[in-house]
């Protein structure tokens, strides 16, 4: 057989010819398909990179924007705190410090007395709790050492809220936590105090009761006293109770006072709180006081109002709550001027098919506590209340 190609090649049968052509077209189609897939994949990668870059730019822009309002560019990861506290903060999904946190935490970590002006919702709870937890951690406080930090709050609800934040923050710490508030069983609280509560959250009246009558309550090693919402404490007429508390607590301690407003009465209370020691007064750190740069609590918050005739007010409220009830993950708080008004509207709205919770001063503490926690845990709901829940 000759290896040279024939001048007159043999014609292939038509069926074989079609098969060969189909196979060549198939191979060509596969190659084209592969090229198209590679091109699409490359386009996808480019698009993904662009989206990532755009997201990064938006993120930077967003964080930059935050710095102008309640949040700063300072990160919690930059704070010189223990890994135990840092881990808890990460799990609480906090990344950037607020203005009051950035300005007060460094001073508090150094042990300075601080007088802070901070609006409700500005992040001051973490501002004083993080240094408090770190203080107990560094001093290696144990139950046998008694109470090292006391945080005084004006209302039971605020005390419970502060306790809940502290509980999350102390998740990985060995130090103990507790709260004492009016309306609860004082005997069980006393047992807890005697066993040793390192960080104690309290309302003024109940704290004074325990200081007076609970033998075995060890507070002689107190390192820090925190007074939250000082203006509200004065509004509740707890000034005399606070004077008695100051007399009983060790004077050699760090003192922290936060107030949403700065009035002459608050100023006098601050002088009483920090004492008349001139050197101590000179070293006192003022945070956010007379500071024109301090921005509104939430700059993006939309606020509005409606002027409605008295006879139409309930109809408008009903229509609004009905609309909110249909939405997913929406919480509504409605404030009334009296306990009687809360009770009346709660009964009427529930009767009309709008399920709502109610909290007011005439309820027993157990009921208030249960309602508070239920509403806090719910993803949606309506709460009718007096100013007992405003903070």
UniProtKB/TrEMBL annotation:
<dbReference type="InterPro" id="IPR014014">
    <property type="entry name" value="RNA_helicase_DEAD_Q_motif"/>
</dbReference>
<feature type="compositionally biased region" description="Basic and acidic residues">
    <location>
        <begin position="31"/>
        <end position="45"/>
    </location>
</feature>
<dbReference type="InterPro" id="IPR014001">
    <property type="entry name" value="Helicase_ATP-bd"/>
</dbReference>
<feature type="region of interest" description="Disordered">
    <location>
        <begin position="1"/>
        <end position="66"/>
    </location>
</feature>
<keyword id="KW-0067">ATP-binding</keyword>
<dbReference type="GO" id="GO:0016787">
    <property type="term" value="F:hydrolase activity"/>
</dbReference>
<keyword id="KW-0347">Helicase</keyword>
<feature type="domain" description="Helicase ATP-binding">
    <location>
        <begin position="105"/>
        <end position="280"/>
    </location>
</feature>
<keyword id="KW-0547">Nucleotide-binding</keyword>
<dbReference type="GO" id="GO:0003724">
    <property type="term" value="F:RNA helicase activity"/>
</dbReference>
<keyword id="KW-0694">RNA-binding</keyword>
<dbReference type="GO" id="GO:0005524">
    <property type="term" value="F:ATP binding"/>
</dbReference>
<comment type="function">
    <text>RNA helicase.</text>
</comment>
<dbReference type="GO" id="GO:0003723">
    <property type="term" value="F:RNA binding"/>
</dbReference>
<feature type="domain" description="DEAD-box RNA helicase Q">
    <location>
        <begin position="74"/>
        <end position="102"/>
    </location>
</feature>
<dbReference type="Pfam" id="PF00271">
    <property type="entry name" value="Helicase_C"/>
</dbReference>
<feature type="compositionally biased region" description="Basic residues">
    <location>
        <begin position="46"/>
        <end position="66"/>
    </location>
</feature>
<dbReference type="InterPro" id="IPR001650">
    <property type="entry name" value="Helicase_C-like"/>
</dbReference>
<dbReference type="InterPro" id="IPR044773">
    <property type="entry name" value="DDX18/Has1_DEADc"/>
</dbReference>
<feature type="short sequence motif" description="Q motif">
    <location>
        <begin position="74"/>
        <end position="102"/>
    </location>
</feature>
<feature type="domain" description="Helicase C-terminal">
    <location>
        <begin position="300"/>
        <end position="391"/>
    </location>
</feature>
<dbReference type="InterPro" id="IPR011545">
    <property type="entry name" value="DEAD/DEAH_box_helicase_dom"/>
</dbReference>
<keyword id="KW-0378">Hydrolase</keyword>
<dbReference type="Pfam" id="PF00270">
    <property type="entry name" value="DEAD"/>
</dbReference>
<protein>
    <recommendedName>
        <fullName>ATP-dependent RNA helicase</fullName>
        <ecNumber>3.6.4.13</ecNumber>
    </recommendedName>
</protein>
<comment type="similarity">
    <text>Belongs to the DEAD box helicase family. DDX18/HAS1 subfamily.</text>
</comment>
<dbReference type="InterPro" id="IPR027417">
    <property type="entry name" value="P-loop_NTPase"/>
</dbReference>
């Amino acid at each position: 057989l000759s290896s040279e190609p024939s001048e007159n090649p043999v014609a292939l049968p038509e069926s074989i010819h079609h098969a060969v052509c189909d196979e060549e077209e198939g191979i060509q189609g596969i190659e084209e398909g592969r090229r198209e897939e590679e091109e699409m994949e490359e386009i996808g990668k480019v698009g993904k990179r662009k989206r990532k870059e755009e997201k990064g730019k938006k993120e930077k822009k967003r964080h930059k924007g935050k710095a102008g309002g309640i949040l700063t560019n300072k990160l919690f990861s930059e704070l010189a705190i223990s890994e135990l506290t840092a881990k808890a903060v990460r799990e609480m999904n906090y990344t950037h410090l607020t203005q009051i946190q950035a300005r007060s935490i460094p001073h508090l970590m150094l042990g300075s007395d601080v007088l802070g002006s901070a609006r409700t919702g500005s992040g001051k709870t973490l501002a004083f709790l993080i240094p408090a937890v770190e203080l107990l951690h560094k001093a290696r406080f144990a139950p046998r050492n008694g109470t090292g930090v006391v945080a005084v709050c004006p209302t039971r609800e605020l005390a419970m809220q502060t306790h809940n934040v502290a509980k999350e923050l102390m998740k990985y710490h060995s130090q103990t936590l507790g709260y004492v508030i009016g309306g609860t069983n004082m005997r069980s609280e006393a047992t807890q105090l005697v066993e040793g509560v390192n960080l104690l959250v309290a309302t003024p009246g109940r704290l004074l009761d325990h200081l007076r009558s609970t033998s075995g309550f060890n507070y002689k090693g107190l390192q820090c006293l925190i007074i939250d919402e000082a203006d509200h404490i004065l509004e509740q007429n707890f000034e005399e109770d606070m004077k008695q508390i100051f007399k009983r607590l060790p004077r050699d301690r760090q003192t922290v006072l936060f107030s949403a407003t700065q009035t002459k009465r608050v100023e006098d209370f601050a002088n009483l709180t920090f004492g008349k020691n001139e050197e101590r007064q000179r070293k006192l750190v003022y945070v956010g006081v007379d500071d024109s740069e301090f921005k509104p609590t939430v700059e993006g918050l939309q606020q509005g109002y409606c002027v409605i005739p008295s006879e139409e007010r309930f109809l408008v409220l009903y229509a609004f709550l009905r609309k909110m009830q249909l939405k997913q993950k929406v919480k509504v708080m409605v404030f009334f001027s009296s306990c009687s008004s809360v009770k009346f509207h709660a009964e009427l709205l529930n009767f009309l098919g709008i399920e709502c919770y109610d909290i007011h001063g005439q309820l027993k503490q157990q009921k208030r506590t249960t309602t508070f926690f239920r509403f806090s845990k719910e993803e949606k709901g309506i709460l009718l209340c007096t100013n007992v829940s405003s903070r």
